[in-house]
Design goal:
Distance between the termini: 51 Å
Largest sheet: 7 strands, parallel
Strand order of the largest sheet: 3-2-1-4-5-6-11
Shape: globular
Number of helices: 16
Helix content: 25-40%
Strand content: 15-25%
Number of strands: 19
Length: 472
């Protein structure tokens, strides 16, 4: 089958793409930024890549007319104030373009929306579904609730809460019921829906085989991890306080925390298991999905993570907008060190951040992350998705990876922390030398004062860090 895949750089798309390739389908991937598509040379040679923006109708003309099935896996968790209007417009633009192709089916992954009172996020999902349903193809909508898998927002937030807090005084929405589903089961539903007349022009709720409250999910997570936890729900936490609670305790951004709290107050339970019966699937239990996620983590096989989405940080636009480090009106700190073992140095650079740390002053880095969190920034809790591999677009603590080329020996990071200016950090191998460059473009007088105020501490940390990176 000739399949068009949107959202190929997203959490679901990254996992669905190799499955579709393995089944022998011919894939065309629509992405906003080609630099963020990092599947490896063998996969990228097997797919066609189109760079387009769903908000830009003209860019969608690149979509080929000769396709059989299209996947719509694009959505937002309020990365802008008018995200509902943007999502609706994106759906309309996409529908109009697919109408001019030979596509017979469009498959859309949405959220369970069978409650009378919907959150803004779920209302937006339903609006997108209604617009996509107006096309001259058969629409198949799969509505999922909480998705559990290594790197998913739900899994990582539950993990943060349980592993960091032995005792929780939590909001009353912990009593809300939901129906979690394993990411592997979601992928199976998406793949089995291809060109299946039984699912044409229909919507299906997909959920796991258990209905649990959020409190039960936290306690079962603790059981799987061998931890004892106590949770008390209190009615006094307003949605805003609940959002701050999630923001400070977990690695989520405040905007995402607000959307999650808005959604968590509403039950998301599947209407029935019609599609499970149709496909004759045996779904994983909640605890089995947790164990599967931890197996992936232990084997360092996390394919995608929500933290790599731009929603988790403060970067907007394409990576190419930041790859050319400015030269004028900037302060620079350039340090050079001889590297006796270049390959080992590159390996160390590619392992920087997350649990591996920053090779010097990790407590100082952690304190800086804490201060950033207090200021409303992303903090240091995002870590890294994979302990060995990094790609352009990935989140790396409070940095965003702009460029990563191991063969060139060059890694370029852009700071997403709260600062009176913009910061780039670059590592570049030149012969047997490692060149480390900090570029700071200040904003106003305070930006210039900031550069000089922190100069002694910055010099100490980055001098020692450089020395430890090149050390054999």
């Amino acid at each position: 089958m000739r399949i068009l895949l949107t959202g190929a750089t997203g959490y679901i798309g990254k996992r669905l793409l190799p499955v579709l390739l393995h089944k022998g389908h011919k894939l065309t991937c629509v992405v906003r930024d080609k630099q963020r598509l990092a599947f490896g040379e063998s996969i990228e040679k097997s797919i066609d890549i189109i760079e387009a923006d769903l908000l830009n109708k003209e860019s969608l003309q690149k979509i080929p007319e000769d396709i059989d099935v299209a996947y719509y896996l694009v959505h937002s968790m309020s990365d802008s104030r008018n995200y509902q209007e943007q999502e609706k417009l994106s759906a309309i633009n996409f529908r109009e373009r697919i109408n001019k192709t030979t596509a017979k089916q469009l498959i859309y992954l949405s959220g369970i929306v069978n409650d009378q009172s919907l959150s803004k996020h779920l209302k937006s999902r339903l609006s997108v579904e209604q617009e996509l349903a107006k096309g001259n193809y058969a629409l198949t909508t799969l509505r999922a609730g909480i998705i559990i898998g290594s790197g998913s927002a739900s899994f990582e937030i539950i993990r943060d809460l349980v592993e960091k807090l032995p005792f929780m005084v939590a909001p009353k929405w912990l009593k809300t019921r939901c129906q979690p589903i394993a990411i592997s089961d979601v992928i199976r539903f998406l793949e089995l829906s291809i060109n299946n007349p039984a699912v044409f022009n229909k919507s299906f709720d997909i959920g796991g085989n258990e209905i649990l409250t959020y409190k039960q999910m936290l306690l079962r997570f603790a059981k799987v991890r061998g931890l004892k936890r106590r949770i008390i729900s209190v009615p006094v936490m307003t949605p805003r306080l609940s959002s701050y609670w999630l923001y400070f305790v977990t690695s989520t951004s405040y905007k995402l925390a607000t959307s999650l709290v808005d959604s968590m107050r509403i039950e998301v339970i599947a209407r029935n298991d019609e599609l499970t019966q149709l496909f004759k699937l045996q779904l994983l239990s909640y605890e089995e999905s947790l164990q599967q996620a931890f197996n992936k983590i232990e084997q360092n096989e996390i394919i995608s993570g929500w933290k790599d989405s731009f929603v988790s940080g403060q970067l907007h636009g394409q990576l190419s907008d930041f790859i050319n480090v400015p030269k004028f009106g900037c302060f620079k700190d350039v340090r050079i060190a001889e590297s006796p073992a270049v390959e080992n140095t590159i390996k160390k650079i590619w392992q920087i951040g997350g649990k591996n740390g920053w090779y010097y002053g990790n407590r100082l880095w952690q304190f800086r992350g804490f201060m950033d969190k207090l200021a409303g920034g992303v903090g240091l809790r995002r870590g890294r998705t994979n302990n060995e591999n990094i790609s352009a677009g990935d989140a790396l603590d409070f940095w965003r990876i702009i460029y990563a080329n191991k063969k060139e020996g060059r890694l370029l990071l852009y700071a997403e922390m709260k600062l009176p200016g913009e910061v780039w950090l670059e590592f570049r191998i030149h012969g047997n030398q490692l060149i480390q460059t900090i570029t700071f473009r200040p904003k106003g007088l305070w930006g210039r004062m900031y550069w000089y105020l922190y100069k002694p501490l910055r010099s100490l940390v980055f001098k020692r860090m450089l020395a430890n990176i090149v050390k054999g």
